[in-house]
Write a structure and sequence with these properties.
Layout lengths: L16 E4 L8 E9 L1 E5 L1 H7 L48 H9 L5 E4 H10 L3 E2 L9 E8 L6 H15 L5 H10 L6
Antiparallel strand pairs: 1-6, 2-6, 3-4, 3-5
Length: about 190
């Protein structure tokens, strides 16, 4: 299992399956929606108490430290802004990372503002250790995709993994008839 934020070459790197958010699929790749997420801009309560809670995007330029992911195209800019918002911001960033878990750790240590997918910080938002800010400036949902090589014959291990993933993560939204059909196509698979 590799954890990287880039679109690798499936065939060249001998990778079977990739999960991702907004990478365009190469011509030799199948891309299917498997869920939804959204980017959340957040910081710890002690950080916001010390530096103030931004009321708008321009406030981020004043006395705040944004911790961006260096793998993003726009290194210091926010992602997933609503279409009508495209401000040119000069946000201070004295700390950057290529790892989302490190970014979360930095925010929990009161070192700045981060922007991560909701599923990565869901528990911290619920328990109040991270506070979402400026929510109305961002799109509500974006798709999460599963990518795999496009072949006339999909490898059984890939087909079975994709089907199992669907059963385990989305079962409550899948009609019983679909589940039964998946089971028939994958004998020996249990719940």
């Amino acid at each position: 299992i590799l954890v990287e934020e880039r679109m690798p070459g499936l065939e060249n790197e001998q990778i079977d399956i990739i999960f991702g958010v907004n990478w365009p699929a190469p011509l030799d790749t199948t891309r299917k929606i498997i869920g939804k997420t959204r980017y959340v801009l957040c910081a710890s309560r002690p950080y916001l108490d010390k530096f103030g809670t931004p009321k708008n995007l321009k406030d981020l330029e004043i006395n705040h430290n944004y911790i961006p992911h260096v793998g993003r195209k726009n290194k210091n800019n926010l992602v997933n802004l609503k279409e009508n918002l495209n401000p040119i911001l000069n946000i201070n960033s004295n700390l950057k990372s290529n790892n989302a878990e490190f970014m979360k750790k930095f925010a929990l240590e009161n070192m700045g503002i981060i922007q991560l997918h909701d599923y990565m910080i869901e528990e911290e938002i619920k328990n109040g250790s991270l506070i979402e800010i400026l929510k109305d400036n961002f799109k509500q949902e974006i798709p999460i995709y599963i990518y795999y090589q496009r072949h006339r014959f999909v490898q059984p291990k890939v087909r079975n993994f994709v089907n199992l993933f669907w059963l385990l993560t989305l079962r409550k939204n899948i009609p019983d008839a679909v589940i039964a059909r998946l089971r028939r196509s994958n004998p020996g698979q249990s719940e």
